[in-house]
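Aim 2 progress update. The chain analyzed this quarter is reproduced below.
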Amino acid sequence: MNWKNLVLAALGGAAILPGLVGCGGGGGSAASSIRMIAVGDNGQVAAYKVESNGTISAVHSDLATYDWVSVVPGRNPGVFYTSASDETQIGVIALVDDTDFTGDFITDSQAAGSKLFKHPTKNALYVMHAGLDIIEQFAINVDNSVTPLALATAPTDDQPTSMVFSKNGNYAYVIAEGSATVRAYQVSPNGTLTQLPGAVYAAGINPRKIVISDDGVNVYVMSATTNFRQAQVNSDGTLTPLNPVDVAYPMGNFRAAITGLNTLCFYRESDEGIETYGRNQNGTMSDLGVPNFATSGTTNVFRMPGQDYLLLLTGTQARAVRMGANGSGTEIDSEVLPAGIRDITFISAN
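Predicted structure tokens:
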């Protein structure tokens, strides 16, 4: 994939960018469905079709010269945004008819290696910089270009690592590993984040990832080393720690996702499996006590589209797993990935 100075265009309501030299070939159809996008540290960008039953199949891949670190969905079908550890700009890429990737870098960012987030319902893109303790904020335009919001940056605590949004989209929660805090933000109608006064909470030891239940009632702060923390989300955006606030756990649990069946799933490195906890009526989590789903070398756990599907990133393989409410997992499919995949997202197809 050779990146050039390209002009964004919107055709027929879907964003299509002019073709890139070196981007061609592939196969697949333009059927309206879900695509999984994987990006890697060797410049790889790969797309896969995801069926409603959880099966996955490759449709197109290509190479650039960048060390990709983060990818999120765009505003329009087939479009996604990327960041890289060796480039300060943010890129936008379109998957065209499952046969071509086209794209360009579209805006400067304050540092390389940012982590990207998109608001689930608003056309807002957030660029998180762990080393600068800020989140850059952009409006996503109809042609998939981005424009800084009037409040171009939102301050964070020390070394932000992860963010989720409330079910109604009016609040965001950001964890900061350096200060071991989780902070609540109010989200304006245009997507601007502002800190909710006084809404900062202890996040436990080495917080790394935050997940939220589908009903938006509870958040869980996952740790890189021990325990995880649980809280209730209040209607005003504040959090109330649950009792107990910590779920005792002897090792890291940050490679995690929660299903629509309220099953919290995370990788247990000591015996290389997916540990499962279930949500009680009061929002606390309890070990479901079933044998771990066997897996090894898992670098991340993602929620797939659907209530009970997970995607396990295990080296050069993506494993689709149906995880029941009882914590029992069944592998549905697997697909070989290019080496060095760092992040995955799911988008709708053109």
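The chain has one domain: 9-348. The radius of gyration is 19 Å. These observations will guide the mutagenesis experiments scheduled for the next reporting period.
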